[in-house]
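Need fresh eyes. Consider my entry:
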Amino acid sequence: MTLDRHNAMSNFRGLLEKVPILKDRMPDRPLSELLQEKIQVAENRTREVGHFLDRMESEMESIRQDIIRLNKKMVVAAENEEKAAHYILKLKDLQSELEQELASMGETVTAAHRSKKAEIDEVKRMIWDHGARLRLYSNAEDRISAIVQMNNHFLEMLTNLHGNMQNLYEAGLEVLDELRGNLASLATATEASELTMDMQESMQSLKDSVNRVAVLASNTSLYLTQNVERLTSQMRIYDEQTEALVKSNLEAEREIQEKRIDDTLALAEKEYGLLKQAREK
């Protein structure tokens, strides 16, 4: 059940990989899995060849049996042909005897003459009937012989084809048996190759990242060294113009405040003087 499920998932994944849109999105499969899949396909094809060889053997046996049956029919046809030919020859001799007897009766037509003539006609009819059978048996023998000859040709071709395919089939079984015995070693070797390749890719990626970081750090250090004073000077929050403006505004505000203080003092002296004069009166 587990193997069938694995084969089904592998076949489904292989089907998805044939879809152009999904092919690029599918992750690469391990080499060991691909190797196992290739072995499975080879086993299936070899098994199909084995089934086909069994079917060929069955068909070859059917042809052999058919040849045996046709040979028997051909023998029977040959025997019937011989019997028919022998019987026709006997009828021919009988016809000759009857014709000689009819000739010895003279030319006068009598009842015996007519009876002898009828016997000759009956013998001719029998020769005709058995002649038709003789031709039938002769044609059947030739026809069956041609069929047997073609069947022998087909049997020879199938035998040669079966022998060649049997050799290939046995060689395939030997290769598969050898692969099954070395499958664990092959899987380990492929896994080692995959791990080595993955490690090499990881190290290369790390190397690239480290080099990029080192280059960035070096360029940054050089840039800071070359521009630290300028950057430091540019880090002031307020520039000189702003500071001058603020200072100027504060001085103006101070002058205004001083004037207001003077005005306030003068107003206070004035108001105080008026109040004092009013009390004295």
